[in-house]
Amino acid sequence: MYATLADLLACHDERDLIQLTDQSGAGVIDQARVDNAIRAASVIIDGHVAMKYRLGQPAPLLTEIAVALAYHRLSGDTPPDAVVDAKKDAMAMLAKIAAGTIKLDQGEEQLPARPGAIVIAPRDRHFSRDKMDGF
Asked: For residues 46 and 97, what is the distance between their CA atoms, to the nearest angstrom?
């Protein structure tokens, strides 16, 4: 996963996260709902970035994107305009990373070929110049 609850708390007020996640009325952040939102954000990020980079540690930019996407998901059906704009910006950033116009400062570009790759060898030509000589 590209973000944690601590990353969300660094960008958003704890009261807001309690309001968005606490369905039982206990007055605390529901860690399971936060984890689900972060997991969903991570899947979106992987879909854009995994073909270009293999990351050990999440790049700080990806953590920022994950926080924006997770917070949008936690915000429900009618998120505030600022949250919608943050999601749009995050998605635009992912598109630029996938296109290669923004390069992450970590990770290995171009994953090596997978084992068992298909190799195609050409056959000899049936009608080569040598075989057709004299016709």
From this structure: 11
Tens digit of each residue's pLDDT (9 = 90 or more) over 27-75: 999 999 999 999 999 999 999 887 777 766 778 999 999 999 999 999 9
Q: What is the DSSP letter of 100?
A: T
Confirm whether 124 is domain-assigned: no
Alpha helices in 75-102, H assignment, sequence order: 81-99
Cβ-Cβ contacts under 8 Å for 56 (sequence gap 6 or more): 106, 107
CA dist., res. 27 & res. 57, Å (int): 33
DSSP strands (E only) in 1-135? 53-54, 108-109
Question: Does any domain span residue 47?
Answer: yes
Q: How many folded domains does the chain comprise? A: 1
Which among 71, 52, 53 is positioned nearest to 13, based on CA atoms?
71
| CA distances in angstroms from 75 to 98, 100, 131, listed in the order given | 26, 30, 73
pTM of the predicted model as reported, rounded to 2 decimal places: 0.75
- Asked whether residue 131 is assigned to any structural domain, the reply reads no
Residue 114 lies in a domain: no
Domain extent at residue 16:
5-99
